[in-house]
Amino acid sequence: VQLVESGGGLVQPGGSLRLSCAASGFTFISADLSWYRQAPGKERELVAGIGRFGDNANYKDSVKGRFVISRDNAKNMVYLQMNSLEPEDTAVYYCNAKYFYYRAYNVYGQGTQVTVSS
């Protein structure tokens, strides 16, 4: 099972980034997918989640209207489009998959750094 994030980087306030996560090793369509983030000195927090068929998208209040989560079940990919970025969005962003195959799995990728600074 593997989740590999990409697309992070340094961006100015007000800018945009698109994070991507490539998944392998499990039945992608069976998984609920999410993006989490962890800022220095803070706990990891849920940013956005999406259901198996691209439905039931949900967001952390502070990113509503700025971030959009999506998935492509044909390509085993999940995305996070981040617009109007703020310094408070600076964190390591992690892709997450939750699925059941004989037992429950809760898998994270290695993370990608997003830094919002002028």
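That was protein one. Protein two is written in the same sequence-then-structure order:
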Amino acid sequence: QVQLVESGGGLVQIGGSLRLSCAVSQSLFSIDTLAWYRQAPGKQRELVAASPRTGSRYYADSVRGRFLVTRDNAQNTVYLQMNSLEAEDTAVYYCNAKGRIGIEPFDYWGQGTQVTVSS
């Protein structure tokens, strides 16, 4: 089982920055896609950014140009650098890992970290 532990959330002013971290319990080379999702109160969980093991990174239109997802394979950690934060970015942010063990797919979530952007 893959364990994901997020950290780095908090309270920040509009226009500020935060960096979220997701520590993964196994080598990132075994994971096809690492992604960040968020869920705001009363809204559905949405994909924010994704980092596939190969291929281009994905960003939601609402965060493209402001957020950056990166992997540190040596530290088994994926980051989400969030800049120029807006009030609409307020949400619980979740780390997600998808891949396969043999032919069996897996899909794991972290516990989430709260990001609050205020004036």
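The chain has a mean pLDDT of 95. Keep this in mind for the problem set.
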